[in-house]
Each structure stands twice: as C-alpha cells, then as structure tokens.
Amino acid sequence: MAKVLEGKVAVVTGAGRGIGRGEAMALAAAGAKVVVNDLGGGGNGVGSDAAPAQQVVDEIKAVGGEAIANFDSVAEVESAGRIIQTAVDHFGRIDILVNNAGILRDRMVFNMSDEEWDIVLKVHLYGHFYCARAASRHMRAQKWGRIINTSSSAGLGSTFGQANYGAAKEGIIGLTRQIARDMAKYNTTCNAIRPTAATRLTLSPELIANWERAGLTDIKERVEANQPDDISPFIIFLCTEAASNISGRTFSVAGGEIGLYSEPVPEKTIYKKGRWTVDELLDIAPHTLGQGLKVLGIE
To answer: Known catalytic residues?
Structure first.
C-alpha cells in the first residue's frame, strides 16, 4: 500500500479485534502513526484485558509501523479524553479519529432493562461524542482532520432485539452530520459507515438466535461472507485529500460493495391551508401518506 497517510496520527477505538483491528493495521500500512485503543472487555462490555490492543500494536511494529496501545473506555468523558491525549502526548498531534468501539446488550424492547439501554448508548453514542469532541479541539487548531464514525444497518430496522443498539447507531448518523457542519470551516471532515462484516458482535449467539426465530438466515449468510479487513480500504480513502469534499455523508461497506446513502427527504406530502382535522386525515391520509406502506417487521 502507498504511504498516502505518511506523517498523520490516527486513533482507532475498539481496535483490538474485528473491524477496528483491520482499520488500525491499514492506517499503519498507509504510513500513519496509530493509537490502538481497546478496553479489552467482552462483547457485552464486561471486564477488561490489555492483550488485544497490545497484540495489534505488536503486529504493527513487527512490520515497521509506529503504534501505541491505550486501554481506556470510550464511555466516560475523562477516559475518552485520555485516548485522544495519548496521541498528542506520544506523537504530537491527532489527525484522524476512527470511532469503532462498541458492545451489545440484545433484548426485545419489552424485556430490555434500563441498564441494558444505558450502557449501549454510553459506549456507542456517548463514546463517539466524547472522543470526537476531544479530537475536534485539536483538529480545529491545526485546521485539518478526519473523523469517521461507525453506524449500523440496525438503525434502519434490519434486526430484532436491538432497540438500544439501533437507537445509538442512528443517533450517530445525526451526530455525524452536525460534526461535519461544525468542523467544515476547519478543513475537517466527518463521515459515517454502516459496515457489514463477520465479527464477534455481528455473529453473537443472541443476534443469530433472533435471526433464526425470524427466519432471516440469509442475513447470517451475508454477514459471514464479509470479512472485517474488507472495511479498511474505504476508511483509508476517506482519510486522504482525495476525499476532502466528502463530509456529513453515510456509506454502506460490505466486502467489494460500497454504497452512498441518500439523505432523508419527505417521501410524500399532503397540504392544506391551516390545520388538518382528525376527520380530514382519516379520510385522506390512508389513501395518500399511508398508501402502499407496510408494517416494518411484517412481510
């Protein structure tokens, strides 16, 4: 790979395994110095282990790259700040942030506990915000930066038992747009991806069980067909000058298929002067706004 990111400093959260590991390895291969962050907990966020992040650092160094491990959690403001500060302290700056860290606490919405809701939002949505805010302060000062956030098709209603995860991942899309606007004048872009790849989260026993109960075996097969390292080439592209005009957008990335999502626009509109009455809506809406619509989750 060409050293297209020579001299840049990158932070990748959740980089000890799966997609994050592939992103960290690819960034290093492209010439960036990399902070490999991973708390090292289980897929449910419980526990910690320094080994996954350190192993990726060792792999990067073994092929001549520069990297350092960080074991802080993204879910708390102070520890998220330390992740970014690690890059500044050891490499002098931060140019690229890839927000990838995540956990799952799957449960059907009617059984989901407050704790299961809170922890998933903290790791995903809050974690993205905490790290992006800390990094953006440096990017603003140096007038250059790249922030890449990790969303999911779960927010589009493609899964079951993931109200917490889907809500967090769709919140990340809105966060991405706002960061892009806030940072545009500082030559800093922010984009999001909805990746599809076989990882310990996407192939968790709980999620597979939900798919099987719903008869969605084709989803499992599609996930298994895509590897975590397939995601990283597009990440590298988004970090280059060639992508300097791309910001605030969302992409699907799955194996050899990369797609640009359209931005939401009203699909249908009804209009009258003044306020609609309930009787009018009962008469008109089913044959206009509601025509042809299907209940999500029922084929």
So the answer is: 165
User: How would you label 38-72 residue by residue, b for 16+ Cβ within 10 Å and e otherwise?
Assistant: bbbbebbbeeeeeebbbbbbebbeeeebebbbbbb
Give 193-248 pLDDT, tens digit per residue: 999 876 656 566 666 666 666 666 666 666 666 788 999 999 999 999 999 999 99
Range of the domain at 170: 9-260
Q: Residues with Cβ < 8 Å from 241, sequence gap 6 or more?
A: none
Distance between CA atoms of residues 233 and 253, nearest Å: 10
Q: Which of 26, 31, 25 is nearest to 8 (CA)?
A: 31
Do the domain assignments include residue 286?
Answer: no
| d(C-alpha 221, C-alpha 165), whole Å | 21
Is 297 a member of any domain?
Answer: no
Q: Read off the CATH number of the domain in which 150 is found.
A: 3.40.50.720
- Name the residue among 12, 26, 138 with its Cα closest to residue 74: 12
Residues 16/40, Cβ–Cβ less than 8 Å: yes
Total of domains in the chain:
1
Rg (CA), the chain: 20
Distance CA 20, CA 40 (A): 12
Residues in the chain: 299
Dist CA 112 CA 135 (whole Å): 33
242-262 core/surface letters (b: 16 or more CB in 10 A; e: else): ebeeebbbbbbbbeeeeeeee
Position 3 in a domain = no
CA atoms of 274 and 257, how far apart (whole Å): 47
- Name the token pair of 282: 């009962």
pTM to 2 decimal places: 0.90
